[in-house]
Write a structure and sequence with these properties.
single chain; alpha/beta; Rossmann fold; three-stranded mixed sheet; three-stranded parallel sheet; 11 helices; 6 strands
Length: 210
């Protein structure tokens, strides 16, 4: 995403500066992810779900992401999201791009507003790795054929176990465990790492518009 959902929700509540500070520390690995998420979500208590849906509908993908997802899907890749963000955004992307799976944190909602709590298990680093492992196992895909892309410390275990772990515009802590680090990059730079040609991309995008 070109925008962070939790940052935009925080703007609505007038707590953007506080939430952004905690987010940055968590992304660097300087703050326990679970605790950081609980603190940030607590600040969103009382936010109407209608505002969250408005943010979801206005969010833009990072440059090159749509082209990448469309092409990989056309080439037969199994695609999905394993996010430390929220299900409202992850499920929307899953539906839009016909992804195979989406896992994210579930916001608790009562009477049309956020309660400031997360439902169920938090998708932390260990949970991300477990989910990717389970999806690969269910699809009978060896882990050495899995490609994982992440940008924060919470992605470290997931990238470390993948055959190709890509740190995308990431914090230094993630660069150290990834196979490849792409800095100041766009998502379509991933094509080169996967050996995908311009012809593949053009054909995939043309099929989408037919």
């Amino acid at each position: 995403m070109a925008m962070e959902g939790i940052d935009e929700m925080a703007r609505k509540m007038g707590v953007h500066r506080e939430v952004a500070r905690i987010t940055d520390k968590a992304m660097r690995g300087d703050f326990d992810f679970e605790e950081s998420l609980r603190q940030r979500v607590a600040m969103l208590r009382g936010l109407p779900v209608d505002d969250v849906m408005e943010i979801r509908n206005q969010m833009n993908l990072s440059q090159g992401a749509e082209e990448l997802l469309t092409t990989l899907k056309w080439l037969g890749f199994k695609l999905g999201i394993v996010s430390g963000g929220f299900d409202i955004f992850a499920e929307s992307l899953k539906d839009k791009f016909n992804l195979d799976f989406a896992f994210a944190n579930r916001l608790e909602i009562k009477d049309g507003t956020l309660t400031g709590k997360v439902k169920g298990d938090i998708v932390n680093a260990a949970q991300k790795a477990r989910l990717v492992n389970q999806v690969a196992c269910d699809a009978r895909i060896p882990l050495d054929q899995v490609v994982a892309i992440g940008d924060g410390a919470n992605d470290s275990l997931m990238l470390a176990q993948a055959g190709l772990g890509i740190a995308y515009n990431a914090k230094k802590a993630l660069d150290r465990v990834a196979n490849v680090a792409l800095s100041h990059a766009r998502f379509n730079h991933v094509f080169h790492l996967l050996g995908i040609t311009e012809e593949d991309i053009e054909e995939a995008m043309s099929c989408k518009t037919m």
